[in-house]
Amino acid sequence: MSTVKGVAPPIEKYDGSSLRVLIVHARWNITVVDALIKGAIDTMTNEYSVKSENITIQSVSGSYELPFATQRLIAASRLQATPNAAELFSSTPAGEQTGPPPVNTQTFDVAICIGVLIKGSTMHFEYIADAVSNGIMRVGLDSGIPCVFGILTCLNDDQALERAGLGSSDKKHNHGIDWGHCAVELAVKNRGWMAGKI
């Protein structure tokens, strides 16, 4: 039986080759999280030419910590992108490099927050899901950097496995793939919006 559920592919083909992507993930339910990360990375690198060296991956203990970590990492990328006084007054001519190649220091174009919440026997699940959802949205709105909501909120282990493409049913699908598509589309569109292009 077919379903109407699911996202339609983007209308345009986006070039992600110049994007800098942040993935922040929780370590709870890591088997499922790892599959979701792989789905997102494979989609961005294989379908949109995002360079693997332009993908920064950071982990935190649980999903509750994702909004704070994402907010601070976006701020850190802005610090990296700002030349310091030593660089501004350096006597090394532009284009001349001394030492190892520099790390990509442009500001992150997009963040993907990945975590897996599985309901237990207490209200913990509901509080965490609500706080994380609101927190991730707030980070995106406050920073102006798109933050993709990569949080699975599942009632049991089987639901989590199915949504990471690890389940045994025909309905299994890795949602990390969707988050990879979403990240590139939002990052490219946001660059245009920031330049006044509609």
From TrEMBL:
Domain of life: Eukaryota
Pfam families for this protein: DMRL_synthase
Stored SUPFAM superfamilies: Lumazine synthase (SSF52121)
Gene Ontology cellular component terms for the protein in this record: mitochondrial intermembrane space; riboflavin synthase complex
The keyword Transferase is assigned to this record: yes
Annotated function: Catalyzes the formation of 6,7-dimethyl-8-ribityllumazine by condensation of 5-amino-6-(D-ribitylamino)uracil with 3,4-dihydroxy-2-butanone 4-phosphate. This is the penultimate step in the biosynthesis of riboflavin.
HAMAP family documented for this protein: Lumazine_synth (MF_00178)
Name recorded for this polypeptide: 6,7-dimethyl-8-ribityllumazine synthase
